[in-house]
UniProtKB/TrEMBL annotation, chains A, B, C, D, E, F:
Annotated family: Belongs to the carbohydrate kinase PfkB family.
PANTHER family the record matches: 2-DEHYDRO-3-DEOXYGLUCONOKINASE_2-DEHYDRO-3-DEOXYGALACTONOKINASE, SUGAR KINASE
Entry protein name: 2-keto-3-deoxygluconate kinase
Lineage: superkingdom: Bacteria
Keyword Kinase appears in the UniProt entry: yes
Transferase among keywords: yes
Organism whose genome encodes this protein: Companilactobacillus allii
C-alpha cells in the first residue's frame, strides 16, 4: 500500500512554555504541512508514503527533507530548486486564551514557484494506491494550481485514488475572486474519489443551499461522483472543547460521538482525522470503527505538541481499549 | 494621553516546566513590578507611558531598563544610581499545588534608597494625564514613603489624575505599626482620584466597620473624595478558580460576572484589571463594558506566563466577541 | 529517627514540554527509584535517612550519588562497583493521552549484580529505626533476592522495623514462575512489620480468595504478623483522575476520601503515599490524619514533575489547612 | 545628537551550541539588520536614534519593534503594513569550520514592498543630524530603490549628513545588471557625505582602475564630494583571524593596526566599525583614536554572539585601556 | 552505488554548554555508532546507504530508527526485537581539560543479543557494492561475533567489497584473551578488502614486529590480501591538536599533511576519515586527493558537535578551495 | 581528616551561550562562594567537609543547602534564619572580550546579619583538623567581622589549623578606612597558620615595603608566625592567559611553572589552587608536587564552567600524567 501527497512543506516555529512571541527569543522548529502531517501519520500507521514537493537547495531545505525522512516519508520525489520555505509561528493557548498562528510569506516558496512541468507525475504515480492533494494549492499560485490539477488528472486517469482536502482558507484568498476559486474547486472535484471538507465548504465555496446535512453531502457526492466525503468539526463551551467526525458514503451519513479534548495544540487535527479515515478505507473497516479510530488519532494529536500525528495502530487501539482513561503505560 | 507610574522595577525568576526551585538550575528572567505591569499593559493598549523609578548603574540595571523599553515604556525618567534590583522567584503551581513566591531583599534596591530630592516630579508631570502610585512604596522605606507622598501632592496640585493601588501586604509591614501605616495611607488618599483596593483594605487597614459592600465603598469614596474605587477578587472551589471585578463610583457599585480562569500564572492579575479599568475611564466606556474589558485583560494575563499583560485592544475585543471560546487565531 | 532504604537507584530521562521521545533531542535527567523517592520525601519531612545500594564507579555513578545527597539522603552506605545504572524514559501525558514509560536494561546495573556479601547489613543497621525494602529486588536477580532477604532477616533480628513495598510488576517477572515469586514474597513477609501493597497483590500474587476488603487485609496481616498494611489506588473517569489511600491495622480498615488529582506526572504516587504513612506512624498520628497527610503528599507529588516528593511538613499542613485551594504562597 | 537609519529589519535565527541546522530543532531569535545594528550600537554609545522602516502588522512585526525599542531605538517612524519580515539562519563556525548563513525570502517583506510615498521623509528628518542608508536598499526592489534615493535627496537638501554603506552583495544582484547597479550607486553618491565601503566596491562596482589605495580613495572622494570614506577588512591565516579599519579624508588615508580576533560570530563586524567611526566624527576625535575605538567596537562584537553591538563608551575605553587583556570585570 | 553497514546503533547523551555531568540535569540526545556515522556521512556525500542492525521494539528504538532515516540511512534492514539500546555520555573538553566518555551497558542491547540466524544477509546484500563491518562486533558477544563473521563471509562470496574497521578497544576486551581476539580478527581479515586501523592494531593485536611503517602495512596487506589499508592518527602539543591520515595500497604508503584541528568534539574522527576514503575509492580519485578530502571531512567533523559527519561534497570542496580560511558562507 | 569553612553561600547566575545579560532571559543558577568552592573541591578530593554559614529559611535557602550537600559538603552547621542570599551575575568572556561580574546586594544576606552569638563555634570545631576563613568576612558587616575573628580565636585555642584567604577586594571596602581594614587583618593573622594571598595584599593592605618577593614572604610569615603563605597569579599577553602558583614556607619560596590556560570561566581559580595546596599539606607531599597538583586543579577549573572544582585525585593525576594533552577519556 503506497500513498503519495502533494503539497507544501512548511517550517513551524513554536514558542516554548506557553509563552507569547513577545516573551521569548527561543523557538522550537518542526517541519509540517497538510501533506506532511497526513503522510507522517500514515507512515506511523504502517504504510509506505512519499511526498511530491519542492524545497530550496540550501541547508534549510535539506533540514526539512531530513525531517520528512525522520517521519518515515520517502523523499525521492522531493525537488531542490530556487525559492524559500514557507513558515509560520505558533503561540500555544491556555484555558480560554486562544492559540495564535502568524504566517510568514509562502508565495515565494520553492513549492509555490514550481509549475507542473517540473514534476514527472506519470512516473511518480507508478505503483501508487492513493494520492492526496491539499486544496491550498488551488489558492496559492498559478504554478501550484496547474500542478495540482494536472496531478489529479493524471492520477484519475491511471486509476490512482485521489484524496482531496478542501482546506479552503479565507486568509489565503483575499485576492482571488469567489467565482475563480469555485471553478477551480469544481474542476478539481471531477477527479476526486475521497474528499475531506465541511458543510461550510459546500455552502460557502460551492454555493450549495443550506439543506439537511445528510442530504447535502449526498447531493454533493452525487454531483461530483465522490465516493467518500468526510470531515470533522469542533465545538466549544466555556473552557471545554469537543471533537466529532463524519463520513458520508453512498447516501449515508455516519457520525462519531462528540469527544472532549484537552487541547494542547490544535493544529493538525483535521489531518490526523483524515489519515485515520484513509486507514479505515485501506483496511476496509466498518465506518463506525473507522470514525472511532480517526477521532482517537485526532484527539491524541490535539493533546500533543506539534501538527504531525506520531501514533501507530497499537497506540490507538490501546487508547480505545481503555477509552482514554489509562494515564500511564509502563 | 500620557500615563506615568512610580514604583519599583523588579527582577522575576521563573522556574521552567512547572518545576520547583530545588528541581531546576535554569530560570527565566523577566522585568516586572506593579507599575511595570500596569504601564506595559497600557502601552500595548495604545497609550504613551513612562516609568519614574531608579535602577542600579550596572549591566543588570541596563538590562531591566531595556526590558521596560521593550514593553513600550519610556525610560527617560529612570535614574541610574547605587543600590540593587529587588527580585523574587516564582515556582508555578499545577492543579491544587499552589504557586509559590520567594522574595530576595528589596530594601537595598536603588528604588528603596532614593528619596524625593533625587526626582524632579514637577517637570516629570508636565503634559501627563494620569500618574499611578503603588501603595507598596508606603511600606518600604522612609525614602520611598516621602517620594510617593511628594509625588501625589505635586500631581494633585497640577491637576494630574492620581491613581493609587493599596497593594497592602502583611509580609512587608512586620516592622511597621498599624497606626503608622494607616496614617500614611490616609495622608496619601487625600491626593487620590482613582483608588484600587479591596474590602479588606478598608476594614483592616483603614478600620472601617464591616457594613454592606456598596455602602462601605460609597462611604470611603466620600471620606477621601475618591472618584473611582475599583478592585477584583478571586474565588476557588476544588480545582476551579474564578475572577471578578468591581467599580464603585458616585455611590453606585458595578460588579462583573464571575469568570472561570484556568490559571497558568496568577501574578499580575490585579495590575491587568487596573490597566483595563483605566482604559475604560480614558475612553469613557460604560462601567459594564469597562468591567468586561478589565476582567478579560486579567483573565488573559492569568492564562499567560509572567506578570505583564501584553494584549492590545483588538486582542481583547476579539476575545470578548467569541466569549473566550475561539481556540485558534490564524 | 533514622530510616534506611534498600533498592535500586535509577536514572530517569524526562522529555520536556510534554513532547514525545520522537519529537525531542533534549531530555531532563533525575535520580529516582522507590527507595530514593521514599527517603527523599522522608528527608524533607525532617528525618535522617540513608540509602543502601550500589552504583557504577564512574562519573555517572558519582552524579547519581551527588543527587542522593542533594535530596538529603546519606550516601555513606552506597557502594561503588562495576556495572551500570538502570534507566528509563518518561513521556508525560496530557488530557486523555497517556504518560509513557520505556525502560532500558536494569539487570546489568551495579545494584543488580551485587549480592549480600558485598554489604555489611549488621553495622549498617546500627541505630536505625526503620528499614525499607522495595519488592522489586525480589524480581530482579539472584543477587538482589538474597540481599533483600538477608537484610530483612538481619533487621528483624535486630528489632529494626521492616517496611516492605510489594511493588510487584508483571513486566519484570516474565521469566519468573508464579510459584517462585509467591514463595519469595512469603519468605520476605515473615520479617515484615509494615507492608505496602494492594488488594491485587494479595489475590493475584499470594493467591488469597477475593473476600471483603477489610477481611482480606485482616487475614493477611494475621497470617504474616503484619502490623500495618497500607496502600493507595487510582480511579479515572473521562478526563478526571482520583486518588485514595487506606491503612489496615489491627483488623480495622481506614480509608481516605477520594481526592481529585490534576496529574502532571503520576510516577512516584505510591512512594509519596508510603512516606506519608511512615511519617504518621513515627509521629503517632491518628490514622485519619495520617491518611489525609499521606494523600496530600501524594497529590502534591502527582501535581509536580518527577518522582521524588520534595514537600516538608509545613508545606503539607498549609495545603491541608486551605484544602488545596490556595493558589499562591507569597 | 540624533541619528536615523533607513533599512530592513530582519529576523535572525541562530542555531545554539555551535550546532548545524540539521542537528537542532531549537533556534535563538534576534532582530537585526544593518540599520538596526548601527543604531543599536549608537544608542548604547549614548546617542538618540530612530529607525525608518516597515514591518508586518502582526505579532511577529510587533515583536521585532519591541526588540528595536529594547536596543534603545525609537520606533515612532516604523510603519505597520502588509508583507512579512525578512529572515536568515546562522550556523556558527568553529575553528576552520566556516560560519554559514541561509536566507529566507526578503523581497516580499514589508520593507521591500513599500515605496517612498508611504514615508514622510521631510518631517522624519526634522532635528536630525545624521541619516544612515544601507546600500542593500538599492539592490532589493523598485520600491526600496526609490525610497532610498528619495530619502538621500531630501536629507541632502535639508543639510542632514548622509551616511551610506555600500554593502554590495553579489547574491542579491543576480538579476540586476552591472550597469543598472552602478548607475544607482552613482546617483546615490551624489547625496552622500560619509561612505562606508571597500576597495572592491570602487573597482568592481564603480569601475575605478586598480591604483594605489590612498590615491583611489582620494579620487573617489573627490569625484563624489565624499567627506569621509571608511571601511574595514579581514585577513586570515590558518586558524587565526585579523581585523583592520581605515578612514580616508581629505586625501589622507588613516589605517588601524591589524588586530587578532577570536571570532565567535562575525556578522555585524562592519556595522560595529561604522558606528564607531560615526561616534568619532560626532565627538571630533583624532582619526587614530576613532580607528582604535571603531576597531575595538568591532572586535568586541565579533567576540560576542549576534550582530548588534551592545557596548557603551566606558566598556570600550576600559577595553582599550588594558589592550583587551583583562579577562574579568568584577 | 549502495553501501551497507553492520554495527550497533547507540544513544549518545551530550552534556550541554561544556559542562560536566555533575553540573547539568539536561542532556542532548543523538543516535550514533561507527556504522551510523559512516553511513550518515556517505549518505550526505551522495550515496545510497542502509544499516543492518537490531533495535528494541519500543518508543526508544523507534526514535533511534527515525534518526537513522533523518541521516539518510535506509531502515528496511533494521530489526525490532527484545533488548535495549547501548548508550554513552559525553562531557566535552575545553583547552587542556579532556573530553570524557562514560558507557552504560551495551552487552544487553538488541544488537548484542542477536545472532546470525536472525538476519538474512544473503538477500540484504543483493545489489550492494560495499559492506562495512565494525570490529567492535568481534569484542562484544558470541552473537555479534558469529553475525559479523557470517556477514563478511557471505559478502566476500557474493563479491561485495568488505570494509572492516579494527576499532579495537581495550576497555571492551577485559574478559577476552589476546589469543582469542587475535584469531577472530585473523578470521575476519580473510574476507576483507579494505581495512581501517592503525599501526598499533597490527603490532599489539596481530603481533606484527615493529618495522618501518610502509613495510609493515605492505606486509600486512599481502598477508591477508587487503586491497587498501587506511587510518588516521592524532598528535598533540600543549593546547594544539593535529590530525593526519594515510592510505597503504599496493606496497605504497600515502600520507596527508598534519592539519591543526580546533577540536569541539573529537568522537567520530575516524569514521569521518573512513567515509572520505571510501568516497575516494568509489570515485577513483588520486590517493593524495582522497586523503585531502578524507582529512577535511574529519577536521570539519571534529570541529562540529556530535559524531556523525553531515557534510556534502560541495561543503568539503569549498572548504578545501579556501584551505579552511573562509569563516563565513552567506 | 575533616575541614570546615566559614563564609558566605552565594547564588551565581550565569548567562548561557557566551551571551551578555542584555541578550538573554535565561540564566543558569549555581551555589558558590569561596568556602563552598574550597570545600566542594576538598570533598571531591576525598575529605570530610562542612560549611558554617547562614541561609534564609525559605525555598531558596533550602535549594542552596541542597546544592551544598550535592557538592559533598555537610550541612549540619548551616543555620536557617532571616535575611536573603547574596547573588551575582556572570557574563562569560570570549577571546579578548572580558568576563563580567555584577553583584546584587549581599549586606542583607543571612550570613551578613548573623553575629558570633548565633554560632556555637566551640562544638562545631570538635574533631576538626582545618578551618578555613574567607577574608571577605572582614569587609562585610560588624557581625561577620566579629564572627570571623571569634571563630579564628576559638580554633587557634583548640589547636585546629586556621587557613585564611586574604581575598581583599577594593569594591567591598569603599566605606571602610584603610587603617580599620589593616587592623582587622592584623588581628586575624595572629590566629592564622596557613595564609592565602598575594604580594599586593602585603604591600597595599599591610603596608609592607616592596622588597624581594622571597624576603617579603619570609618577613610576613615571621611577623605573624604563619606556617605557609601561598598564592597564585595570572599573566596575559594578547589572547593568551597563564597561571602560576607559589608556596612560601620556612623562608623558602617555591614557584610552579607558568601554565597556559584556555579560560572558559576564570572565577574560582584561587579557591581551586587553595584546595590543592591544602591537599598537599594534608598528604605531606613535596612542595613541587603540591604546586603542580594545585595548579592543575586550578587550570582544570578555569577550563570548566562555574566556580567550584569537581575533580578528584585520579582526574588530576591522570591529567598530570599526560601533561594535559589527552583530549579524550573513554
Amino acid at each position: 500500500m503506497k500513498i503519495l501527497a502533494f503539497g507544501e512543506v512548511m517550517l513551524r516555529y513554536t514558542v516554548p512554555e506557553h509563552m507569547l512571541l513577545e516573551q521569548s527569543d527561543t523557538v522550537l522548529m518542526s517541519t509540517v504541512g497538510t501533506g506532511v502531517n497526513l503522510l507522517g501519520s500514515l507512515s506511523h500507521l504502517g504504510y509506505e508514503t512519499g511526498m511530491i514537493t519542492q524545497v530550496p537547495d540550501n541547508s534549510l531545505g535539506k533540514k526539512a527533507v531530513a525531517d520528512l525522512r525522520k517521519l518515515g516519508i520517502d523523499d525521492s520525489l522531493v525537488g531542490y530548486t530556487n525559492g524559500y520555505l514557507g513558515s509560520f509561528f505558533v503561540e500555544l493557548g491556555h484555558g480560554s486564551r486562544p492559540q495564535r498562528v502568524t504566517y510568514q510569506d509562502r508565495l515565494s516558496s520553492s513549492f509555490c514557484i514550481t509549475g507542473p512541468d517540473e514534476y514527472d507525475f506519470n512516473s511518480a504515480l507508478e505503483g501508487v494506491d492513493y494520492v492526496h492533494i491539499c486544496g491550498i494549492a488551488l489558492s496559492l499560485t498559478k504554478e501550484t494550481r496547474s500542478a495540482a490539477l494536472e496531478l489529479a488528472k493524471v492520477a484519475h486517469k491511471k486509476g490512482v485514488k485521489v484524496c482531496f482536502d478542501f482546506n479552503y482558507r479565507m486568509g489565503l484568498n483575499e485576492n482571488n475572486s469567489h467565482q475563480m476559486m469555485k471553478e477551480l474547486y469544481q474542476e478539481m472535484l471531477e477527479y476526486v474519489d475521497i474528499a475531506f471538507g465541511s458543510k461550510r465548504d459546500l455552502t460557502d465555496l460551492l454555493d450549495y443551499a443550506e439543506i439537511k446535512e445528510s442530504d447535502l453531502y449526498a447531493k454533493f457526492s452525487a454531483d461530483y461522483d465522490i465516493e467518500y466525503f468526510a470531515g470533522s468539526n469542533r465545538k466549544s463551551d466555556e473552557h471545554k472543547r469537543y471533537f466529532q467526525g463524519f463520513i458520508a458514503h453512498n447516501g449515508q451519513l455516519y457520525k462519531s460521538k462528540l469527544r472532549e479534548v484537552k487541547v494542547l495544540d490544535r493544529i493538525g487535527s483535521g489531518d490526523a482525522f483524515a489519515s485515520g479515515v484513509i486507514t479505515g478505507l485501506i483496511e476496509n473497516w466498518k465506518y463506525e470503527d473507522t470514525l472511532r479510530f480517526a477521532v482517537a488519532n485526532s484527539v491524541l494529536t490535539q493533546e500533543s505538541l506539534n501538527d504531525t500525528p506520531l501514533f501507530d495502530k497499537e497506540d490507538i487501539f490501546d487508547y480505545l481499549a481503555c477509552d482514554g482513561k489509562n494515564e500511564l503505560i509502563r
